[in-house]
Specification:
Order of helices and strands: HHEHE
Structural class: alpha+beta
Mean pLDDT: 92
Length: 101
């Protein structure tokens, strides 16, 4: 779970595999948060929302995603940001499978 950005996208712009998980995933964030409303910028809950200064200071990382992953959009965006700061070591984007393959 990177930023929950996909839940903000209108249904008409989502792929068929993303639509059923839209509200479910936001409910998972609410379960993980101690105070959901106050943690919208919390990089521990939403690593993809960390600011550039924090991203510059994290250790290098690897991202795994897949073609039909609800989090794929977030993963691709976080990979691009990490690459721009020299933090992304690699990204695996497995074709033809869903999240958690």
């Amino acid at each position: 779970m990177i930023s929950d950005k996909t839940s903000q996208i209108p249904n008409v712009n989502l792929e068929y595999w993303e639509k059923p998980l839209k509200e479910f995933n936001t409910s998972l964030y609410k379960l993980l948060a101690s105070n959901y409303d106050l943690q919208q910028r919390d990089s521990q809950l939403y690593p993809g929302r960390m600011d550039d200064m924090e991203l510059r200071n994290i250790i290098p990382y690897v991202i795994w995603t897949s073609e039909f992953d609800f989090y794929r959009r977030d993963c691709i965006d976080f990979a691009k940001r990490g690459r721009s700061f020299g933090k992304l070591l690699d990204i695996s984007d497995m074709p033809g499978v869903y999240h958690g393959y």
